[in-house]
Amino acid sequence: MSTASPEDNATTPESQASARGGEAGRGSSPDVALDIRAQSRRWRELGDLKSLRTLVNEALAAGLAVAPRRPLAGAELSVLLTDDARIRRVNRDWRGFDKATNVLSFPAAPPARIAQSPLLGDIVLAFETVEREAQAEGKTLPDHLRHLVIHGLLHLLGEDHETEAEATRMEALEVAALASLGIADPYADANLVTAAAPFPTEP
Predict the structure, then answer these.
(1) What is the pLDDT of residue 24?
(2) pLDDT value for 29
(3) DSSP string covering the chain, please?
(4) Which of 59, 71, 86, 132 has the fewest CB atoms within 10 Å around its CB?
(5) How far apart are the C-alpha atoms of 23 and 40, rounded to whole Å?
């Protein structure tokens, strides 16, 4: 994994995807400027880009409402809706794990600088994995997408689940955000396996 900061837009996963093309659009939640890109047509199963942006913005608003840390007003957040093959490459190249996953988060700033950073970071989601998990766990695909967006957002805002205490805190924030959307506690029956790329630090 590169030790370069994801603040460098030339090397973030979202900017790499932009260079390769894909349907894109801009919108905003109350506190952030959303740049959303649908790299896989499978996401069209949830509607057009406007519908996808609405789902993502709902999740962002719910997550921001419970997050202990606040981003800079208008900070840019990029969401890349991709597939298993592409997220596997991102996971391999940035995290050293040669496998697909459901969601990856790439913070643009460490926790101490979030409130001053004009860039919040990138969230990448893979359709096939998200769909499989939703089916296996008896959830609707839109609800599972919103959960993973909230999970990814909290990572961008400095939350983590490396320790039991961190995991308990993060899960509680997610459950509260989801409840505001009328979505049941996803941790009631099973643990969600997710992945995030922490902000790189100097060795």
Answers:
(1) 53
(2) 58
(3) ---S-TT-TTTSHHHHHHHH--EEEEEE-SSEEEEEEE-SGGGGGG-SHHHHHHHHHHHHHHHHHH-SS-PPTTEEEEEEEE-HHHHHHHHHHHHS--S--SEEEEESS-GGGGGG-SEEEEEEEEHHHHHHHHHHTT--HHHHHHHHHHHHHHHHTT---SSHHHHHHHHHHHHHHHHHTT---TTTTSPPP----PPP---
(4) 132
(5) 9
- Give the pTM: 0.82
Per residue in 34-53, is it b (16+ CB within 10 Å) or e — as a string?
bbbbbbbebbeebeebeebb
